UniProtKB/TrEMBL annotation:
<feature type="transmembrane region" description="Helical">
    <location>
        <begin position="348"/>
        <end position="369"/>
    </location>
</feature>
<feature type="transmembrane region" description="Helical">
    <location>
        <begin position="26"/>
        <end position="47"/>
    </location>
</feature>
<dbReference type="GO" id="GO:0022857">
    <property type="term" value="F:transmembrane transporter activity"/>
</dbReference>
<keyword id="KW-1133">Transmembrane helix</keyword>
<protein>
    <submittedName>
        <fullName>General substrate transporter</fullName>
    </submittedName>
</protein>
<feature type="transmembrane region" description="Helical">
    <location>
        <begin position="441"/>
        <end position="459"/>
    </location>
</feature>
<feature type="transmembrane region" description="Helical">
    <location>
        <begin position="408"/>
        <end position="429"/>
    </location>
</feature>
<dbReference type="GO" id="GO:0016020">
    <property type="term" value="C:membrane"/>
</dbReference>
<feature type="transmembrane region" description="Helical">
    <location>
        <begin position="145"/>
        <end position="162"/>
    </location>
</feature>
<keyword id="KW-0472">Membrane</keyword>
<dbReference type="InterPro" id="IPR005828">
    <property type="entry name" value="MFS_sugar_transport-like"/>
</dbReference>
<feature type="transmembrane region" description="Helical">
    <location>
        <begin position="112"/>
        <end position="133"/>
    </location>
</feature>
<feature type="transmembrane region" description="Helical">
    <location>
        <begin position="203"/>
        <end position="224"/>
    </location>
</feature>
<feature type="transmembrane region" description="Helical">
    <location>
        <begin position="319"/>
        <end position="336"/>
    </location>
</feature>
<feature type="transmembrane region" description="Helical">
    <location>
        <begin position="168"/>
        <end position="191"/>
    </location>
</feature>
<feature type="transmembrane region" description="Helical">
    <location>
        <begin position="376"/>
        <end position="396"/>
    </location>
</feature>
<feature type="transmembrane region" description="Helical">
    <location>
        <begin position="230"/>
        <end position="252"/>
    </location>
</feature>
Length: 472
């Protein structure tokens, strides 16, 4: 039985290698048409980032002040926690519409309700990934699922702007997360499957740059709309995403590798001709019909990809390992930006610096990915992130500059580990299950993010109870 399993694994690798090499001979390893499609597809990460971190501003806790300046109990150093004061003794510094916390009076609720909207978003991501993950490998394909996911996310985000209370708001955030779940996976796989294997890691990093652009756009939009309703931010981020879905539908081609695995060889051939460079496009002597592919074996039903990952011991071991690592990285990656409000620093500046720290992380990954040992680099960056996070807690409030610096190193290390993990996952699995495997790893990352908002809200309450934050 062991010999038979080894033989099947060998045939699997040989099958995928033949498909990759034949496609590369037809369209080349990399061309301008491939680059253009990779950029357009990767731009989905911009809207992914915006909806992922938008709650940093929309759900932030605004500053407050005492209504009566002569009220000694309100202005005492001990009473830095507004929840210990009568509601009539204090008020928000700005309009209550600037944040969901002030509009729905969530400042003194428990950590579960306070973190419910963001946790609902990540819970939606988790469920969406489990439900939608295999559609890209089976019936819908990479392109159609990308359009469907992005459209669901953006339309629901637009509806979120009209939420009447925290419960409807949380429900809509859940649906937004459900739609968003597979955007990054589809964009990453679709952009990398139209280029040669040697260029796949470099092209995959384009999405990371786009994610950084989306992250950076949030503090800019939030700053210029400060003092306005938090609903404006949802409208500004959702409308461009809807227009982007239309662009992808008409401009982007489906993955030729996925079409071949599905047995749709004529469509694959037309796609290859449309994205092939002039040099390779004239080589019509290559016949894709000569490939021995058995679509039924690889796509028997909706969850065939997951069955393959489960049945193949080597695939299950790899998937388990990268998912465990992904859980820890996800808790840090999503938790650090969401917890910036607890550092008592300028939120716009802190988010901007954190978003900028993703750039060197992406650059390091881009230029050194060919030289980095995947496992060793992830070990180094995750350990550095953990050590810096512990140091951030130990630094007192009087050294804010040092605390922010250590926090930035922690987030930079987490971002780099995040990037390396996704590229590593792409390299570990063949075409027929690559999208599903990457989706499972992203679900592990998101699962770590589910716990972050509640832990952050609990930490904020603990900090307030001990007088750790000032009325700024």
């Amino acid at each position: 039985m062991a010999d038979l399993a080894d033989s099947q694994t060998h045939l699997l690798k040989k099958h995928v290698r033949t498909l990759d090499e034949t496609i590369e001979r037809f369209i080349g390893s990399f061309g301008w048409a491939q680059l253009l499609q990779a950029i357009v597809v990767s731009f989905a990460w911009v809207f992914d980032a915006q909806q992922t971190f938008i709650s940093v501003f929309t759900d932030s806790e605004p500053t407050w002040h005492c209504i009566n300046p002569n009220n000694e109990s309100c202005n005492s150093v001990i009473s830095t926690n507004s929840c210990k004061l009568p509601r009539s003794a204090w008020t928000w510094d700005e309009s209550i519409q600037t944040s969901t916390v002030s509009e729905w009076d969530l400042s003194c609720v428990g950590p579960i309700i306070a973190g419910l909207p963001t946790s609902s978003f990540f819970a939606g991501c988790l469920l969406g990934g489990l439900v939608l993950a295999t559609l890209a490998d089976s019936s819908l394909g990479r392109k159609n699922l990308l359009v469907l996911s992005c459209l669901m996310m953006s339309l629901t985000a637009l509806l979120t702007a009209f939420s009447p209370n925290v419960w409807v708001y949380s429900a809509l955030r859940f649906i937004t997360g459900f739609g968003r779940a597979t955007i990054g996976t589809c964009a990453l796989v679709l952009s990398t499957e139209i280029v040669g294997k040697q260029r796949r890691d470099k092209v995959g990093i384009i999405g990371f740059f786009c994610f950084t652009i989306g992250f950076l756009s949030l503090p800019a939009m939030a700053y210029f709309t400060r003092g306005s309703s938090w609903r404006i931010l949802y409208i500004l981020t959702s409308i461009p995403a809807i227009l982007y879905c239309i662009l992808v539908h008409f401009m982007v081609h489906e993955s030729p590798r996925w079409l071949m695995v599905q047995g749709r060889k004529e469509e694959a051939l037309n796609t290859l001709k449309s994205i092939a460079s002039p040099y390779y496009g004239t080589n019509s002597s290559i016949s894709l019909s000569s490939l021995s592919i058995e679509p039924e074996q690889w796509n028997a039903d909706l969850y065939s990809a997951i069955k393959i990952l489960w049945d193949k011991k080597w695939a299950f071991r790899r998937l388990s390992a990268v998912m465990i690592v992904g859980f820890g990285i996800g808790m840090m990656y999503y938790g650090i930006p969401l917890g910036l409000g607890n550092l008592a620093s300028n939120l716009y500046l802190s988010v901007t610096l954190n978003a900028l720290s993703e750039l060197p992380a992406s650059l390091i990954t881009f230029f050194l990915i060919g030289r980095l040992n995947r496992r060793s680099s992830m070990l180094v960056f995750t350990m550095l992130s953990g050590v810096c996070s512990i140091m951030c807690v130990m630094i007192n409030d009087g050294r804010q500059g040092l605390r922010i610096g250590v926090e930035l190193v922690s987030f930079f290390s987490t971002c780099t580990a995040f990037n390396v993990l996704l590229i590593y996952t792409l390299e570990l699995f063949p075409t027929c299950v690559r999208n599903s495997a990457l989706s499972m790893v992203r679900q592990a990352l998101v699962f770590g993010g589910v716990f972050s908002p509640v832990l952050i809200a609990a930490g904020r309450r603990e900090d307030d109870d001990h007088g750790g934050r000032d009325k700024r």
